[in-house]
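Exercise 7.
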Amino acid sequence: MDSKMTLVVAFVVTFSLVVPYAALASKGRILRIEEEDQELERELKILNKPAVKTIKKAGKIYDCVNIYKQPALDHPLLKNHRIEIPRSSTKVRRPINMELVNGCPKGTVVIARTTKEELLRAKSLFNTYKSNHFSLKPSATGYDFAGIEMKVEGNKKYQGAEAHIKVEQPSPNVQKQQYSAAIIKLQSGQPSSNSFLQAGWMVNPDLYPDNKTRFHTLWSDVSNGKVSGCFNQYCSGFVITNPQAGLDLPIVPVSVSRKTETTLKISVSQNQSTGNWWLRVADIYEIGYWPKEIFGSLDINGAEKAAWGGLVHSDTPISPPMGSGTFDNGRALLTAYMSLVQLRENGGPNFVAPNDTSVQVIESRCYLVNSYGYANPEDGYTFFYGGKGGDFGGCK
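Solution. The predicted structure, written as tokens, is:
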């Protein structure tokens, strides 16, 4: 009898302790969710500024926002930033199109409107990428790179990188939980403290509303234990100066296998006076720039590393196609390539072709590179890259 009573008393005491703890834990989770939701709403308010004009294109809404009230300037390090105005560009026939019809009015810039769902997806993708970007060599994290990278040599610094990139629609289609991109990347620092920026084209059905080949940018900074950065315009930082071209618009046309080739010149160059990193496309689109203030390691002297190539990611055991999805040993109508690869180094004012002895070729589990080096005056430094992807264990 006594033992039964003791058991009952013990159960009652234990239950009385567990129930309040469970209730407190549940309340704590609810509070965290509410706080996270409030933070998202705060960020959305920063990103979605009042629009002078609204344009719908390719499944997204774009707002024309006063250039001096754009989201970039809400970055805490840009409160007193003075916008750098680009040089004027000559109007010429455009071989490619990545602009809004009629564009935005003078004095405004193109800002993609962001929904709560889009912001959540973009944050998730960035959080995955930021943990794996430092090394371009193959890993077991679902990321694969194939291309070239400049070797770290003493105190050599790079103030710019550019290339003519063949614009592809990878085949077969890139699926959900996958993306495929062609990138130019500049980077400095160590794993615990580093900065990088990149630009190129990307097919990403998790980030975008479709499987179209779209322009993209990405930046990140790790300083004092804090990580900042994002894809495109999903955070404050990148300053837009162009009233026509946005950071995530589709690129038209794309190359058609065995028939046509479309290339897009992408150039990133540091202003020697201000230290800002300018993004230019096709010599006529000055999209905008990454201000030097948002980086801790990409300083006024330039970047320690420069890289060009294809980058893919998959959360599944199946890797997506890279480039065209075919690697046919340098046949330009079938295989992705980058030509006229150039860089600015050690403070020089002009872009020059890489020195072969300073180039490191990086291949991955499922993707190959054929680096021809300096081909001819018309194509300059050229390399081919890509592959069909597939099962990580047997696709190469």
